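Continuing the batch. This is chain 6 of the set; chains 1 through 5 are on the previous pages. Same settings as before, nothing changed between runs. Recording input and output for traceability.
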Amino acid sequence: MVPDSKSSVRGIKRIDLAYVELASSEDARDINRDIVLEIVRSRQPVSRADLARASGLQPSTVSAIVEQLIQEKWVSEGAIAQRPRGRPPMLLSLNDQLVTLVADVRPSQAIIALVDLNGRFLVRKSVPLARQPERAVQQMIDCMQAIQDVHSDRSYEGIGISMPGRVDPESQRLILAPNLKWGDYDVKAAIEEAMGLKVELANAANAALLAELWSGRMDGVRNAVLVTVSEGIGAAILANAQLLTSSNGLAGEFGHTPIDPTGPVCGCGQRGCWEVFASSAAALRYYAELCPEKPVTDIHQLLRLAADGDEGADAAITRQVTYLGRGLRLITASLAPEVILITGDITTMWSRFGSVVQKELECGMLAGPPPRLDITSDGELARLRGAAVVVLQRHSGYGRSGESSSPRE
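Output for chain 6:
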């Protein structure tokens, strides 16, 4: 599940005394299951005895939970631990035969991948997308089916899709995606019908932030914002250790905050939104203005030109990241996070351009020190990993409140 205001991103529920009630035995079982699965994930391979010691649960309780997790294919038994005395225990790990199909959808292409429970990418393919949503989704389905045919020996948990827009938490329908222009097309239903697997949609920024949290790289951080920089600008908010989505899923739309009412028209219909100045598309527009005789339509090509010393490319990207830093002042003034993470195309040249963003951020502080500015650890894979994490959190039982895991073949 994508955690809401009443549940933590690590799967253990935060207690809100305004809504407190006695926990049922079913709630307790779910919480204990969450704890055991998290310890297996973070300490694998691990024995049942070590699980009991680490969790504080009774060995009989741990044993019952482990058997359930094995039956549902989340956990598998592997190597035998070597001990000087006594019966050697079987060690438990996440089941790497259980996989998730994931997609990172962009306006002109999708990256489709196959990921196992340990986050390893087994396949990754790029698929050009048609403009019409029906054709684009069918292209994605064709690629997923081809991957599934080659890897038919695996167990498939579901499909996670990272979307360049906002997704309604209840209906799982796109409600705002100005750069994608898929309207009200039901992506989830179309793919579920074709693939026979449960599909989970998530906003790209929220998915990427979940991936960072799941990895443990943000342990101890309670207030953060992750900003995605691609064709547009997206943001995800961690406030008091809670991932905020709001009741309609629109929380974090800083990219569509106007910063210059005389600026270019944005895909959302407004003028001068932050993303029309700070996105990858903006950098391409700047380069076209500076060097009209050298057409460049791909941000990666522009970044390569900058790396090779092209002055126009360097100037275009410098202008983009200057606006990126200025826009971050909106975030610091409204949310005052401890950490701001950047993910997306520009991070491949962060050593060159990160200092420009940092300078703009620092000079706009109202008071106190600026937040720590950093980039995600896996760049372009962050959105794919996030899509996989969304499936695992929603299906594995983290914060599930009694909902059973989805069946698999």
